[in-house]
Amino acid sequence: MHDDKPRDACGVFGIYAPGEDAARLTFFGLYALQHRGQESAGIATSNGKKISVRTRLGLVGQAFAEDDLEDLPGGTAIGHARYSTAGSNKICNAGPLVADSPLGPIAVSHNGNLVNAAPLRRELEERGERFVTSTDSEVLTRMIAAAPGNDLPTKIRRAMGRMIGAFSLTVLTRDSLYAVRDPLGVRPLCLGRLGPHWVVASESCALSTIGAVYEREVEPGEIVEIDGDGMRSHGAGMPRPHAMCLFELIYFARPDSLIHDQRLHLVRQRMGEELAREHPVDADVTVGLPDSATPAAIGYARASGIPYQEALIKNRYIGRTFIQPTQRLRETGVSLKFNALPEVLAGRRVILVDDTIVRGTTSRPIVQLLRQAGATEVHMRVHAPPMVSPCYLGVDLAKKEDLIAANLSVPEIGRFIGVDSIGYLSLDGLMRAVAVPGEGFCTGCLTGAYPVPVQLGMDKLLLERV
């Protein structure tokens, strides 16, 4: 059942821990990153002599059994949890992906999206490369493998100069682990320590899951090398404006993760506070759409003085299923995922806080659910600006013609979803809540102004059809 939310492309993980069961630690690290990708999971390990890989479709817990982990020897590993934005959901597209290079085999896990993947692929094919997937991740992997250079950092740096878009990577060789982040820093990537060992993850929540301690973010443009001599940085290249995806802070990343050294649970509370100041309304109770809007609803309640209460109960076991509901169940739609509490809602004016509205197809039945439970008024408050443009940098988002805010005014959106009033957080209010002076962010889906030439992204469609 599609929940009408933007979906991030992937989560990546890596660990250099000689003497440890790296595959098992990576398995649990990927578990913590499951929210970033639910279509496939994969782990690659090295025992110093060879790289072993296992990839499966499905959730992390479904993809690996004890036998799989036992067949992944070694103390160095990378992992990948995937949601496809470039290339279909097929087992051949599951990461990590492996390529041969003059320096030996490399395995790569990739979070993001290359907007110039199609022309790079054609260039590689003209040079004799044979592709086995339809993903930009394979293009990226083969670009690194084929790049000139006598060592891997040099090859990565030269490949980075050709790649346009978003890429946070973990790269595995027979004896080393690398962490790489694109010069714009679109997707998050961080470093941690597990005793004497180094760990890399898309989010700090994965470090905590395996008992590792957060150290710092991988800087935009930085290449980090980890091997028997320890951890060392090969620098961030030329400084340039950064463009981290704002939706990592609004929605994608887990609220217990750190980004820019700030706990996102608190950042999202500040979004709710700003929203209350920008769009006040007389009401009796503040409700958040679980779970992603809960922190902002708490912030809205605190700033407005209108108490927060839990009124929507989420069925966390309703997810992707092969059992399709009947038409009658589809018409009730959202009740498969949420139940409302009449004791909280009946006879009350309700503020419903959500993180975003993409198509409006989920918001309308949720509003109906609140009214059926007795709410006398429903006032929608969204702790992000309206989404008016698609994403080309690693987020599965509706086409422009399907984005409700690209086609309707804010009052028209309110009428469409059936609320008494509606208010979106302004971009200025969002930046006040984020509170990272001098840091740049990508606002493409909110403003239509992208940090890369997005006309190249149109060529991505050619890649997806391969």
UniProtKB/TrEMBL annotation:
Where do the annotations place Mg(2+) binding? S292, D354, D355
InterPro entries recorded for this chain?
GATase_2_dom, Ntn_hydrolases_N, PRTase-like, PRTase_dom, PurF, PurF_N
GO:BP terms for this protein?
A: 'de novo' IMP biosynthetic process; purine nucleobase biosynthetic process
Query: In the UniProt entry, which residues are flagged as the active site?
Result: C10 (nucleophile)
Question: A Gene Ontology MF term for this entry?
Answer: magnesium ion binding
Q: In which pathway does it act?
A: Purine metabolism; IMP biosynthesis via de novo pathway; N(1)-(5-phospho-D-ribosyl)glycinamide from 5-phospho-alpha-D-ribose 1-diphosphate: step 1/2
Q: What does this protein do?
A: Catalyzes the formation of phosphoribosylamine from phosphoribosylpyrophosphate (PRPP) and glutamine.
Q: What is this protein called?
A: Amidophosphoribosyltransferase
Organism of origin:
uncultured Thermomicrobiales bacterium
The gene name on file is purF
